[in-house]
Design goal:
By secondary structure, the protein is α/β, with parallel strands linked by helices. Helices cover 36% and strands 25% of the residues. It binds flavin-adenine dinucleotide.
Length: 415
């Protein structure tokens, strides 16, 4: 049997693969997406950042999402005991989108994939990429297995690996490396939020900070379901006995603010426990391939950066591949790896400084410094490439220095 031949083969139909495929299709390239599961399928990653709206808009996928009437997210609330830190995306340093959505990913990803199919893109569900062989010129032959075990091959000029935690090329090419982010775990589920309060309190995304390493997320959806989950050090999870339902029941007692709202509700699915979710790779691209989204890197859920990084990298990779297909030379090291690393490094500083406690000091210090808050808010909205923002430009030292100043001030006043 003759191999099928495409310009670009994309592994995975999550947001990263879909945005990449949409761009390439709009540019007239022959693109095919191979997706292991049957949609709609559950995946975690339900709180978006305003920055990803730019990506969906640019590739023509915004209207299909608007039609789903997802819960609007116009900011985020962080609680620490009796102190509340509210970020409002309309009050941010960098110009750009000031809202996005809180989404059940099964519906969200399905809406995107359906729209792409309507635009004529070939998405093959329930097919798994099992192997990829690269030729010296960077073109490749990909082995695909369908759900009844039949195998076939696809020739491609380029591959975008958007396989998320499938991490197809990192596994096949040995590109995995340990993440620099501390080892944390998460446990989560969905509930029918029957005790949801009226108004903003009921629909606001909230992070209830239990202690420096432990926090609880509450992400209400427009369909009455709310996503709840804990993040903490592996050792905390290990200290609880029982199955995941029992562990989550016990952990809910940690949240004074939310315990009563959720404690006696049934879980919509058996709580999922993911250990050591942070991932990193030795390189983001090579001859004939690019890694995007979670397949490339995942830091931590605390700032909801996963989907936005997935769409940012998917779109960037697609643009560069499109250029190469048109005969333009691309410097992948600077234009892709360098660009992506810049944004990832900003978020990585924020995640690290969250767990050192320094960023929490800035969030919960009173009185608030409104200028600083605007600059941090732009980062939390996903605008991490804007060097006019000191909280982007000096990301690796500004948080620690400001936290230090706050501690010194506190020390002085208590003396
Ligand atoms: P995915 O959405 O995972 O899609 C990858 C697709 O590839 C899947 O559909 C899969 O079936 C397919 N695939 C896998 N292997 C193969 C194969 N061999 N062949 C073919 N197809 C394959 N992000 C946020 O933005 N906001 C959040 O609030 C958030 N919360 C999170 C909470 C936790 C606990 C964790 C662990 C992550 C969270 N994330 C969050 C991150 C988010 O889940 C991911 O960053 C995001 O889903 C990445 O999108 P993607 O397109 O790269 O991959």
């Amino acid at each position: 049997m003759q191999n099928e031949c495409v310009d670009v083969l994309i592994i995975g139909a999550g947001p990263s693969g879909i945005v990449a495929a949409a761009y390439l299709n709009n540019q007239g390239h022959n693109v095919k997406v191979i997706e292991k599961s049957k949609f709609p399928r559950f995946v975690i990653g339900e709180s978006l950042l305003p920055r990803c709206m730019d990506h969906f808009e640019e590739v023509g996928l915004l209207d299909c999402l608007k039609a789903e009437h997802f819960e609007v997210k116009s900011g985020a609330r962080f609680l620490s005991k009796d102190v509340v830190c509210n970020f409002d995306f309309s009050q941010k340093h960098t110009p750009g989108w000031d809202w996005t959505w809180q989404v059940p990913r099964a519906d969200f990803d399905n809406a995107l994939a359906t729209e792409l199919i309507n635009k004529g893109v070939d998405i093959i569900f329930e097919h798994e990429v099992t192997n990829v062989i690269f030729n010296p010129d960077g073109s490749s032959v990909t082995s695909v297995k369908n759900n009844i075990g039949d195998n076939f091959k696809i020739d491609a000029k380029f591959i975008i690996d958007s396989s998320g935690y499938g991490r197809v090329l990192p596994r096949l090419l040995g590109l995995d490396k340990p993440s620099s982010i501390p080892t944390h775990s998460s446990i989560f589920t969905h509930v029918k939020d029957v005790k949801r309060p009226e108004g903003k309190e009921g629909t606001l995304i909230t992070f209830d900070v239990i202690d420096k390493d432990t926090w609880f997320w509450v992400i209400p959806f427009s369909n009455g379901i709310t996503s709840i989950g804990f993040v903490g050090e592996n050792s905390l999870f290990d200290s609880y006995e029982g199955n995941t339902t029992e562990v989550l029941n016990k952990m809910l007692k940690l949240s004074n603010y939310y315990h009563d709202r959720f404690c006696d509700l049934n879980y919509e699915f058996v709580p999922v426990h993911i250990k050591n979710y942070s991932k990193a790779v030795t390189k983001l691209c090579g001859k004939g391939f690019a890694l995007t989204g979670n397949s490339a890197e995942f830091l931590d859920p605390v700032f909801s950066s996963g989907v936005t990084f997935a769409t940012e990298s998917g779109l960037k990779a697609a643009k560069l591949i499109s250029k190469e297909l048109q005969g333009v030379t691309v410097n992948w090291d600077t234009d892709y790896a360098g660009y992506i690393a810049e944004g990832v490094n900003v978020f990585a500083s924020y995640v690290k400084e969250w767990y050192t406690g320094n960023l929490q000091t800035l969030f919960f210090h009173r009185p608030e410094n409104l200028e600083v808050k605007k600059q941090i808010c732009a980062v939390l909205a996903g605008y991490v490439w804007d060097k006019t923002n000191p909280f982007v430009k000096k990301h690796n030292r500004i948080i620690a220095s400001m936290a230090h100043v706050i501690s010194m001030q506190k020390e002085k006043t208590t003396k």
